[in-house]
């Protein structure tokens, strides 16, 4: 798993960068969202064992929520100039798959 979107995603995690993603959603077609990159790997919610990009969607019309996307669904990922503070979004004791230096939220 070393494609361009994956490398940008990992970079965004390490640099605490907000990202803009275009996603092929089954329900709504192609959607574009501003997100916080959380993690990459299997999902606890989806039991199929497939690796997913895990985001926190900041501008969904339905309100802010977690967004887990299969690799084939992620069309584009753009790193924005905005950064985020993990403590503003991580409200649990994390058990990340992708190692990072987010201080108390690592």
Gap between N and C termini: 22 Å
Count of alpha and pi helical runs? 1
CATH topology annotation: SH3 type barrels
Low-confidence stretches: none
Q: What is the CATH domain class?
A: Mainly Beta
Q: What is the number of E strands?
A: 5
- Which structural class should the secondary elements be placed in? mainly beta
Integer count of domains: 1
CATH architecture group name: Roll
Secondary-structure element series = HEEEEE
Structure description:
There is one protein chain. The protein is mainly β and 106 residues long. It has one domain: SH3 type barrels (Roll), CATH 2.30.30. It is 11% helix and 43% strand. It has one helix and five strands; from the N terminus they run αβββββ. Strands 4-3-2-1-5 form a five-stranded antiparallel sheet. 16% of the residues are buried. The mean pLDDT is 94.
């Amino acid at each position: 798993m070393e494609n361009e979107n994956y490398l940008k995603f990992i970079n965004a995690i390490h640099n605490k960068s907000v990202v803009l993603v275009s996603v092929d959603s089954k329900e709504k077609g192609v959607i574009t969202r501003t997100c916080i990159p959380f993690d990459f790997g299997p999902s606890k919610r989806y039991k199929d064992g497939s690796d997913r990009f895990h985001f926190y969607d900041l501008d969904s019309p339905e309100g802010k929520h977690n967004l887990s996307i299969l690799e084939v669904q992620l069309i584009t990922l753009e790193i924005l100039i905005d950064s985020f503070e993990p403590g503003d979004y991580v409200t649990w004791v994390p058990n990340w798959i992708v190692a990072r230096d987010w201080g108390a939220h690592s």
